[in-house]
Amino acid sequence: MTAPPVQAIHVHGLEKSYKKLRALRGVDFDVARGSIFALLGSNGAGKTTVVKILSTLLKPDAGTATVVGFDVTAQPASVRESISLTGQFAAVDEILTGRENLVLVARLRHQKDAGRIAADLLARFQLTDAADRRVSTYSGGMRRRLDIAMSLIGKAPVIFLDEPTTGLDPQARLEVWNSVRQLAGQGITVLLTTQNLDEAEHLADRIAILHEGRIIANGTLAELKQLFPPAKVTYVEKQPSLEDIFFAITGHEAAGSAASADTDN
Question: Is residue 248 part of a domain?
């Protein structure tokens, strides 16, 4: 029996254009099994295009990509059986209760004992007390947790989270972060796209910065910090934040620095 690949996701030379717009210009990265990998970039950097290709919703113009050893172009059915995808907005039915949403998805995916599966997921995502309330009464964080729970039905080893905390308040964002950490703790590989620097800094084992269709930096937070020269003030070394690193690498000025410059002038 062939051993599963060490890398859950392998991407090499990925290119994609929309007419004259080159969305991806040769993207390369690997994601280790059971890790959280953040694809960090501004709007229009190409993050969602990468996720669409990896989830077989879009074909690349060039390059290769595999998910748990399956080629996204040559073996799309096998890839789809191995992944779950959660988009930028929660795909839940607000008329149904949380439990009914989960039971519905379990039945659609031909899972046995849909009721037990729903109960287990409700407990895992701290939604048991709200299980029999309509989703229309849920907070943003609760909806997002339910959405992620629904995506796990079928026990896919890889989950894609496309900007999972878009539009959420700080408390709801923390709730989703805790849920994502739990997934990785259970051995699930998580690839999340985000433009939230704090999100990448707090969640990811590795971070790749995607800028204008290219990966311009890739590493752990500690490795990325080495790219930023330390500043010393009265013999105390300043540790750069991920925000400092991001703006330095992409050639943009941080908002705080720009404001300071305007004040000085």
Answer: no
Confidence (pTM): 0.79
Asked whether residue 224 is assigned to any structural domain, the reply reads no
Helices 114-124, 98-108: axis angle to 10 degrees equals: 130
CATH number at residue 132: 3.40.50.300
CB atoms within 10 A of CB 186: 10
Identify the domain containing residue 36 by its residue range: 7-219
Q: Assess if residue 68 is contained within a domain.
A: yes
pLDDT tens per residue, range 107-146: 988 899 999 999 999 998 889 999 999 999 998 888 888 9
Sign of CA dihedral 172, 173, 176, 181: negative
